[in-house]
Write a structure and sequence with these properties.
The chain is mainly beta. Helices cover about 10% and strands about 35% of the residues. The protein has a 4-stranded antiparallel sheet. The two termini are about 25 Å apart.
Length: about 80
């Protein structure tokens, strides 16, 4: 049964977390998917190049948590991901 459900058991479905994100003008590349389960996907990103200025440096690493976006058995569960 679990094999038949396949991608529906993951928060992002068939998709993975984005390969690159931008936070406050700083670009980050996906370093590691920490967790990707039914409720959420949590990933570690590392800065791409320089991290801001001396007065306002950007962090070298950031964590991105994406709540559930995939329907399950045809039922929308976006609210469930936002709740947790």
């Amino acid at each position: 049964m679990l094999k038949a459900l396949g991608y529906q058991l993951y928060a992002c479905g068939r998709d993975r977390p984005p390969e690159q994100i931008e936070v406050d003008g700083c670009s980050y590349n996906l370093s590691k998917v920490i967790k990707h389960d039914f409720f959420a996907a949590t990933s570690l990103y590392e800065a791409n190049g320089q991290s801001g200025t001396k007065k306002q440096p950007h962090p070298a690493k950031v964590i991105l948590k994406l709540h559930r976006q995939q329907h399950f058995l045809g039922l929308p569960l976006l609210w469930l991901g936002e709740l947790i």
